[in-house]
Structure formats: C-alpha cells, structure tokens
Amino acid sequence: MREKILEIKNIKVYFPIKKGILLKTVGYIKAVDGVDLQIYKGESLALVGESGSGKTTLARAILRLIPIQSGSVCYNGKNIFNLSKIELQKLREKIQIVFQNPFSSLNPRKTVGSILIEPLIFHKKIKKETAIKEAVKILNLVGLKEDAFYRYPHEFSGGQQQRISIARALILKPEFIVLDEPVSSLDVSIQAQILNLLKELQKKLKLTYLFISHNLSIVRFFCNRIAVLYLGKIVEIAPTEELFKKPLHPYTKLLLNSIPTIDEKRKISFNNLKNSDYPTLFYNNSYCKFYYRCQFKMPKCRINEPNLIKFSKNHLCRCFLLDK
Amino acid sequence: MKNILLEIKNLSVSFFTDYGEIKAVRNLNLTIKKGETVGIVGESGCGKTITALSILNLVPAPGKILQGEIKFENKNLLSLNNEKLREIRGKKISIIFQDPMASLNPVLKIGEQLSEVFVFHTELKKDKIKEKVLKLLKNVKIPNPEIVYNSYPHQLSGGMQQRVMIAMALALNPKILIADEPTTSLDVTIESEILKLLYSLKKKYNLSILFITHNMALLSQIADRIYVMYAGEIVEEAKKEELFKKPLHPYTKALLEAIPGYKNNYKKLNYIPGEIPNNINILPGCTFYPRCKFGKKICYEKDIEIFEKSKNHFVRCVL
After folding, report:
1. B159 vs A: CB within 8 A
2. What is the pLDDT of residues A70-92, one digit of tens each?
3. B259, B265, B272: best to mutate for the A interface, most A CBs within 10 A
4. Residue B144: partners with Cβ closer than 8 Å, 6 or more residues away
5. Does any CB of chain B come closer than 8 Å to the CB of residue A245?
6. pLDDT tens profile B54-89
7. CA separation for the pair B109, B150 (Å, rounded)
8. Checking DSSP bridges between strand A233-239 and strand A70-75, what pairing results, if any?
9. Does the model's ipTM exceed the 0.90 cut?
10. Contact A196 B268 (CB under 8 A)
11. Which residues between 100 and 139 in chain A have a beta carbon less than 8 angstroms from any beta carbon of chain B?
C-alpha cells in the first residue's frame, strides 16, 4: 500500500446566503458537499470539473485558507483544522499553492528577490545572505537567470511570472503543492514549458501535486489519477488511462466528448448530450445533481442520490447506472 | 476567383510607442471566400487580433494602418470615411470578442442592447423590433428569450452572454462574422455548445467566419482553411486537412507538438524555446530563426518570401 500524504474525510464548505437588513442567513451555497479523497505520496491527482464545481474551494479548504462546515483534512495523520497557530505555521512550509494568474498573485511592489527570501527569513529564521543564495538556487532550478533577482514581476512575461510563482512555492522545500490551473492563462508553447518543468521538478524533489484544471488533455498528460467534481461532489475517480478508456459517469462522458481534439476527422459531433443547462448550486440535495443534464436519467435518479460505488479496484463512480 | 468575399492585400499595421515602432502586422495577405470558415492561429502577440481589428478599421491608438488594401464588395474599406464604415460595421461585417462581459453594456438590459442594432440600422417600429429581438435570441438557442430580454448582462452565465453577443452580431445577417477567441473564457462543455451553434448558423445563413484562436484543436474542428501567424506575418497557409496532415513550417509543427495528446503523445511535450520577438527591431531573414531547431545559415541571410510548396499550401520557409 502506498503511503497516504493527505486524507480528506467528508469535507463540506458552505457559503451562507444573507438577505434583509439584519443579514439573516436564508440558505447555503454548498460549494463543496461531502468530499472524501486520499492523496498518495509522489502522485499527481487531478481535480477536474466545470467552473463552479468547487475545485478551487476544495483546494483552499485543504490549505485551511477558508473555514469549513464539517469534515477533516489529515496531513500525515494530523487534522489540520485542530492545529495551533505555531503548528499551522510549520504546516505552511510543507504545503504550498500556485495560483492561476501569476501576475495577480505576485506583489507588484516587491522585487522577485524579496518575494523569494521573505518566506525563508520568516519560516526558517536564517540570515539574509544564506537566504539570497538559496533564492538564486531556486531561480536556476525553475529556469530563470540570476538577474531576475533584482527585477519586478511586471518586467517578466506570463510564462516567466508563472516560473516565479513556482519558485516561490518551492523555496521552503514543500512536500505537497496545490496547482490551481497553473497553465490556463498561458500560450500553448509556454504551457508545454511549464508542464515539463513541473514534471521534472516532481521527479527531482519527490513532490506530490494536486492539479486543478478544466483542460482534460493537459490532465491526461500530467496526472496519474483523476477525480471528477460536479457541483461539490466527486462523481467519478479513477486512474488516468482507465478514466479515458472507460468513463462511467454520464458527466465524465460529456466532458470527454467536449474536448476539441486534432486527430479526429470529424468536424463537430452533434451528440445529443445536453450540456447547455448550466449547473447551479441551489438544487435540492436529495437527488442526483446531474439529473437535469443527464442523458440516461431514470425515475429513481429523482428520488435518491447515488453513492460512490466501487467499479473496480481504483475506479469509483457515483451513478445508478452501475447498479445493474 | 469569383467567390472571394474579402481580400486583404499587403496590410501593415504599426504601433508607435515610446520604445519605438512596433510592427504588429507586416505585409499580410488574406482572403475569405463565401461560406468559408477561415482560422488564424498563433501565440499571443503575433498580430491575430490586430489583423481582425484592421478589417473594420478599429485599430486602437497608438496603432496605425500604414499601408494595404482591404477589398470588400469592390470597395477598399481602409479608404472609407467613418459614416460609410458604420454602414458596413454590424450590417455586413460584424465581430464578437473574447470576453463577452466586457463587450456588453452592464447598465442596459439585453433586450435594449439588441434593439439598438435595429433602431440604428433599420426603420422598424418598436413592437416589430421586440419581435425580431426575441426571434434572434431563440435563434442562438437561448432557452427563455422573454426572461433574457429583461435581464442585465451580469445575470447571465458566460456561455449565455456569448450567445447574446453572437445574436447581436448576426442581427442584420452580415456576410462575414469575425470571431476573436469567442470561446477562450468558457468551459469545455459550453465551448463545444458555442462551436456547434456557430457551425449551424454558418450553414443556415451561408456565413463566412474569420475565426481567431490560439487553440489548434478548435480549428481542426471548425475551420476550412487556416493561416498560421508568427510575429506579424503569415508563415503558413493551407486547407485544414492538409495542414494537420502535413505541417510544413517548423513553427506550425512546434505549435502542434506542444499540445498534450497530439498524435497520442502523453509522455514529453516539445516546446518552443525562447519567446516571440517584440517586433521593434526586426532582423533580416526568417523571424522564427532564433527559436527554430532546423535553422541554417541561409535562414538569416536574406528575407524569405512565402511560396506555394504544394497546391494551395503556402509556406514561408526555405527548408
């Protein structure tokens, strides 16, 4: 059995809807609604889904950046929501995040150098000179020149800025990195550079990734395992190749069908899957959330919500179609 | 040829900035035939959008169209004055932009915005206009036209907003629709919906589409003919099937190889080292030379002209 690095149990993140002068809570938006997930050491787990499916919210909850309603996140066996302030600080060294938009996540008033040495001085309590040496090493590691140290973020192109963000995430030598759509704002050729870099770094530094994306071809290239999220719930989880070969959930099929691919000769397939209904989080919770868009809906989908069922060893799916 | 609808000849656009003259588009030639979907593909900053904007003479300051001719219905669009242009914009040639939220007016209801088109270009009565607008909304497959008619842009999802934009662009049955990255900000599922919509509308109205994107995979599904742009120049032009089967220019090849899943490659991606040039000091010879892995001495010795390598397949490369 491989070693678990992170275990998420029944995590729920609700955002209250407030109305009236007294701001009474009239309901909740269930952004993440009961997710169980294990992340193993050294793997890249992908989290895919449309916008609004709760990918980013889940990632933030894992990092304890937002409060959760219930559930637990265990990092190396310890629930991160029970940690004291000092313990949490220690944890921050081990878990890092790279955001989607590199420019808005780098402080425009600071040089790249000071962005990089700040966490070192704060967490590791080392001298400035050693920190600078360390920072230059990391810059080289992500493929930037040393003169980047004294320059400001706006002087770099999008791809280079993303390299800086990655350098910042790496500087404390973390074990686990959340990559929140790290390449979706970049050009294809730059995207390939960054993906290759991340893959290399993973090998070199033995990192574990949680990779958030809505681009399935990138995920297929990058990740070992994929979890498909729909309206705050995992609907299918499987190893990458298996998911692409044998998607089980109708939503996964819809997603796979929508990827534009080059090799196919078809123009546009006029499949009859209904993908126009945009998901909303106000649905009643008591039945399958995909019901309205599903091609194969049955009467019982309207009554109960299916559970995650084991299809094969590593392949789980939340759908009544598997009951047969 | 008879069925050429729009022809761009020798177009050059420059931006005059504090750093010098940025030659965004250089000596560009492009044609669009009737009922054809033409794709322009390239990295950001290679001049795709500027080309599209120059067709309607919309290049923002400090940009300037230096030379060239854009022929449409026996007229040169670049020599028309604003009043004449206004009759073409929207009516004959219309454009949809990348970010629908930014191109819709946030303080006007959808219905009012769509009606404006008719108020300006036609002399229809108010109730007639409303009827037309509702029909338009139905045309782009919006489920509840009446509700959408009375809502504000921010109340709609991204996909719906883009549908409204398409409805607006098609209101007066234009001949050419310029789509500037119409699906980049959308989810894959919504993206495929919008593509299907564009495709069916094109069939219905025999529309020509100029489709601008950086996503090769998208073009492989929708385009008939593709232009590959690099640093303000066309480096390759071919029919879709031809281009994907036999890409000739190293840049086209590199772009394709950078996509995960191209030719079932999920192992290691090839990428293009370096960055696109800034187009201020243009070196003689091939613009792609500094990043090209097949580069030879001949590549930087003289300027390279685009030529017909095989039938209808043009390429700007000496190799």
Report:
1. yes
2. 999 999 888 999 989 999 998 99
3. B259
4. none
5. no
6. 998 888 888 888 888 999 888 888 888 888 888 888
7. 6
8. unpaired
9. no
10. yes
11. none
